[in-house]
Amino acid sequence: MDTSELAGLRTMYVFGPAEGSAWGLTYEGIEAKLRERKTDTFVRVDEGDEGPVRGSVMHFGITLGEEELEGITKRSPEGIAIEDCTAHAAAEFAKWLWDSVVPGGSSITVNTEWGLEADLPDAIVPDVPRPRLVATFFAHLEATGGLD
């Protein structure tokens, strides 16, 4: 696939702490960081008492560039995901995680819905400028296979 085709692909990007580490996520902390970006952002916590969801889940809205996207976060297993997202928006989201959510010195791992379906392992998100991060996400999308 060429770069313009990769740029248009949308999937869920799942971010989490590196194996053996934790970020100490709290729903209150994430909500506060989201509201710093946009005071009227959508936030809802489902306690997970009924149905197939075990444990609580926080759903939220976030504006990345010109797009209004939705995400979810869980405390166990700890992680945060952005849904129906392009590689460019995922790179912007990862930079926001580093700047606002993830404790200094912590690593971030990433996978996508497609990567999980293809049994790809989580990868460490490199601390590189945004264009190189987008290229890393493009490489991941190609590695998932089945895009032709």
Task: Describe this entry's structure for a reader.
- Helices cover 34% and strands 29% of the residues.
- The protein is built from five helices and seven strands; from the N terminus they run H-E-H-E-E-E-E-H-E-H-E-H.
- It has helices at residues 3-8, 27-37, 87-101, 113-117, 130-143, and strands at 11-17, 43-46, 57-64, 67-75, 78-85, 108-112, 123-124.
- A seven-stranded antiparallel beta sheet has the order 2-3-4-5-1-6-7.
- Helix 3 packs across helix 5 (130-143).
- The longest helix has 15 residues, at 87-101.
Approximate strand percentage: 25-35%
Shape: globular
Tally of contiguous helical segments: 5
Strand order of the largest sheet: 2-3-4-5-1-6-7
Structural class of the secondary structure composition? alpha+beta
Q: Major beta sheet, specifics? A: 7 strands, antiparallel
Q: Helicity level, as a percent range?
A: 25-40%
Low-confidence stretches: none
Rg over CA atoms, rounded to whole Å, is 15 Å
How would you state the average pLDDT, rounded? 90
Q: Helix-strand pattern, N to C?
A: HEHEEEEHEHEH
Q: In angstroms, what separates the terminal alpha carbons?
A: 7 Å
Q: Give the tally of β-strands.
A: 7
Strand and helix layout:
Elements: H1 3-8, E1 11-17, H2 27-37, E2 43-46, E3 57-64, E4 67-75, E5 78-85, H3 87-101, E6 108-112, H4 113-117, E7 123-124, H5 130-143
Antiparallel strand pairs: 1-5, 1-6, 2-3, 3-4, 4-5, 6-7
Can I get a quick summary?
This protein is an alpha+beta fold. The protein is built from 5 helices and 7 strands.
